[in-house]
Amino acid sequence: MIDFSGHPPLVAVEDLPEGVTATDDLIGTVCEAVRGWCGWHIAPSHSETLVIDNSGNTVVHLPTMHLTAVEKVEDYDGRELSGFRFSRDGMLHREGGWPKGFQAISASVTHGLAAAPADVIAVVVDMIRDYMAAEEASASGPAPTDVRLDGAQIQFESYSVAGVRRRIATSYGQILNRYRL
Predict the structure, then answer these.
(1) Residue 105 in contact with residue 49, Cβ under 8 Å?
(2) How far is the C-alpha of 70 from the C-alpha of 108, rounded, in Å?
(3) Predicted local distance difference test score (pLDDT) of residue 135
(4) Rounded distance, CA 162 to CA 127, Å?
(5) What pTM value is reported for the model?
(6) Cβ neighbours of residue 180 under 8 Å, at least 6 residues apart?
(7) Closest Cα to residue 91, out of 53, 124, 61?
(8) pLDDT value at position 126?
(9) How far apart are CA 152 and CA 147, in angstroms?
(10) For 30-71, how does the pLDDT look when each residue is reduced to its tens digit (9 = 90+)?
(11) What pLDDT score was predicted for residue 161?
(12) CA within 13 Å, CB half, 109
């Protein structure tokens, strides 16, 4: 699991649309859920060192979809590796292959989009609105767990991601798949 807690949020409190209020903690939790589902931080662009397991292939996939620079690549013993090329999609190719093993490669890179795309921001805002609606609904009493009508019954699942009631994949997958590793 990747820890995104050190990254700035995809949307700041002051950038929320009128009528949408949220704490920094709620925004952070929603952004963590979006980033976790996508598998990388998305935005903003920043430099960091990524440690990668490898099975000895000639191509290594870094957890990013927008790689802008590779400053240095080292093996697990700290020896600098050279003779590689990289793609913007986060792949490193080295003709002689890469070291094999767990935590075999350490890549110091710059990656991520300059700012969160509008569609990602819209997802974050919608998740916050959904949380707000859940809070309002819980203030008026417990939510139903099932509904019955004319012999048919629908049961609802309980979701616990920041109080958001919808599954990310089902509700937002069509949008976020563009950013998912």
Answers:
(1) no
(2) 6
(3) 76
(4) 9
(5) 0.82
(6) 37, 38, 39
(7) 61
(8) 93
(9) 8
(10) 999 999 999 999 999 999 999 999 998 999 999 999 999 999
(11) 43
(12) 28
State CA 65 to chain mean position distance: 11
Q: Which residues of the chain have pLDDT under 70?
A: 1, 138-145, 156-166
- HEC profile for the chain? CCCCCCCCCCCCHHHCCCCCCCCHHHHHHHHHHHHHHHCCCCCCCEEEEEEEEEECCCEEECCCCCEEEEEEEEECCCCECCCEEECCCCEEEECCCCCEEEEEEEEEEEECCCCCCHHHHHHHHHHHHHHHHHHHHHHCCCCCCEEEECCEEEECCCCCECCECCCHHHHHHHHHHHHCC
Q: In degrees to the nearest 10, what's the CA dihedral of 105, 10, 32, 122?
A: -130
Backbone angles phi, psi at 129, to 5 degrees: -60, -40
Tally of CB atoms within 10 A around 21: 10
Provide the CB-side half-sphere exposure for 100 (13 A, CA).
Answer: 6
